[in-house]
Write a structure and sequence with these properties.
The structure is a single chain. This protein is of the alpha/beta class. It has two domains: 354 residues, Metal-dependent hydrolases (TIM Barrel, Alpha-Beta Barrel), CATH 3.20.20.140; 94 residues, uronate isomerase, domain 2, chain A, CATH 1.10.2020. The protein is built from 20 helices and ten strands. The strands form three sheets. Strands 4-5-6-9-10 form a five-stranded parallel sheet. Helix 6 crosses helix 19, helix 11 crosses helix 12 and helix 13 crosses helix 14. The chain is globular and about 65 Å long. The model has no long low-confidence stretch (mean pLDDT 95).
Length: 469
């Protein structure tokens, strides 16, 4: 038997326990709970939506694409092979059974809250998954997935998503995005995001091969470093033509460095031929972060920076299953000194928007809020990946607001490949903001009427302003 029979999300979840403050939070939440979702950074595939192919199984929908889920299952004894990752082939019912058997490991986690909301709100499931009901829940969800209302485009409309950004390789032909823009039945604005990491980080495998292809396809016949910069600029323009508003940089550190053109060209040539040192690779990546800022000043793409992850921490897992399989681990990050060269030259440039994210919450009040509190270009990216949980979201809001206020916030990002979790993630963020503002109202620090305007600004206006939507 299951130890809980009704895991339906409570209407007051995440709101203050104090009755008077909770009532204020309810009133504030009502101002934003039904607003359309603006999602300016995520990883749902445009092809998934354009092809409108149904999900084959509940496992494909709720388990396999969500590394928040698979990493915790792996930590508690499931092999990645048994979860169907990589080239391994596993019975989707067996994957689902493992997921249901391990449901208690999600207690207290953000994933547990999101999954509970998805099961209840999408499938009407009001019972706790477990060994006794895994087969029945699988069949129930599978039946619903066969309905037209569960096709990706139908779900997109039902989720009330006004803007959805994808993340795309610079050499993607963007055909799916062009198809979506030309489809009058799709009301969501779906935009690509330029993600050049694989062509900038010389530490990655096949860097030289990728760079050669980039130059060949978009370098206008120019060679070397000049052709490389030309190709990047041209592909950015192609993304803008397809509707892009941002370029995203998942760098290891926030280090920026301005090299003169000849020095950068010499390093680039060494890296192309496999002769570069580790110091060359670090310097080149830092220089290219600076160059990407320069290009954003020129072409207007919002620059988002996501540093602080040691990617592919377990080499054996990476070799067998590839990247994005749950073992990217946060590291400490310096922003203040690292970004100084970039901000010195571009921090006050008209129209330049730089949205800074962190996996190191010690930087919330020490570095990020002071930077955003001075530079007109800098916006505070919401807590993401490991920090997009309720308590961390609240710590962020408490840490940055007294220094930077609400106006320097870049809006919540769901940062997810798990399409069906988008509404749940945004709902959590809205509840956290309501809870925080309710405390300010209860303490007579902000009038209720003003708090009602602030929460709309934070939820709806902030991402539109920061991402130029």
């Amino acid at each position: 038997m299951n130890d809980r029979s009704d895991p339906a999300p409570h209407p007051d979840r995440l709101l203050p326990a104090d009755p008077a403050t909770r009532e204020i939070a309810r009133e504030l939440l009502a101002c934003v709970e039904d607003l359309p979702i603006v999602s300016p950074h995520g990883h749902v595939s445009a092809t998934l939506i354009s092809t409108n192919r149904p999900w084959d199984t509940p496992s494909e929908l709720l388990v396999s694409p969500d590394h928040y889920v698979t990493r915790l299952l792996h930590a508690n004894g499931s092999s990645l092979e048994s979860l169907g990752m990589g080239d391994s082939s596993r019975d989707p019912r067996e994957i689902w059974r493992q997921f249901c058997d391990a449901w208690p490991v999600f207690d207290g986690t953000a994933s547990g809250m999101w999954l509970t909301a998805e099961l209840h709100e999408l499938f009407g499931i009001a019972e706790t998954p477990g060994p006794g009901n895994a087969t029945r829940l699988y069949d129930r969800i599978a039946t619903r997935l066969a309905e037209e209302s569960f096709l990706p485009q139908a779900l997109l409309a039902s989720f009330n998503i006004e803007v959805l950004a994808t993340t795309d390789d610079p050499l993607d032909d963007l055909r799916a995005h062009h198809d979506l823009r030309n489809d009058a039945t799709i009301m969501t604005r779906i935009v690509p995001t330029f993600r050049p990491d694989a062509y900038i980080d010389a530490h990655t495998a096949h860097f030289a091969t990728r760079v050669e292809r980039l130059i060949d396809e978009a370098g206008e016949g120019r060679g070397g470093y000049d052709g490389y910069l030309t190709a990047l600029a041209n592909r950015r323009l192609a993304f803008i033509d397809a509707g892009a508003v941002a370029a995203d940089h998942g760098v290891r550190t926030a280090l920026s460095l301005r090299l003169d053109a000849s020095e950068a060209a010499h390093i680039f040539e060494r890296l192309r031929h496999g002769d570069g040192s580790p110091e060359d690779r670090d310097a080149f990546e830092a220089h290219m972060l600076y160059e990407m800022a320069r290009m954003s000043v020129d072409d207007g793409l919002v620059m988002t920076v996501h540093p602080g992850s040691l990617r592919n921490h377990h080499s054996g897992t990476y070799e067998r299953f590839g990247p994005d399989t749950g073992h990217d681990i946060p590291i400490a990050v310096d922003f203040t000194a690292s970004l100084r060269p970039l901000l010195r030259d571009f921090g006050t440039a008209p129209g330049f928007h730089l949205v800074l994210f962190t996996l190191d919450e010690s930087t919330f009040s020490r570095e990020l809020a002071p930077l955003a509190g001075f530079y007109p270009s800098v916006f505070l990216g919401s807590p993401w990946w490991f920090l997009d949980a309720p308590d961390a979201l609240m710590r962020f809001r408490s840490a940055v607001t007294e220094t930077a206020g609400f106006s320097r916030y870049g809006g919540f990002v769901d940062d997810t490949r798990a399409f069906c979790s988008i509404p749940a993630r945004h709902n959590v963020a809205r509840r956290v903001e309501a809870a925080y503002l309710a405390r300010l109202v209860a303490e007579h620090r902000v009038p209720l009427a003003r708090a009602k305007r602030i929460i709309v600004e934070v939820i709806d206006s902030a991402p539109r302003r920061a991402f130029k939507l």
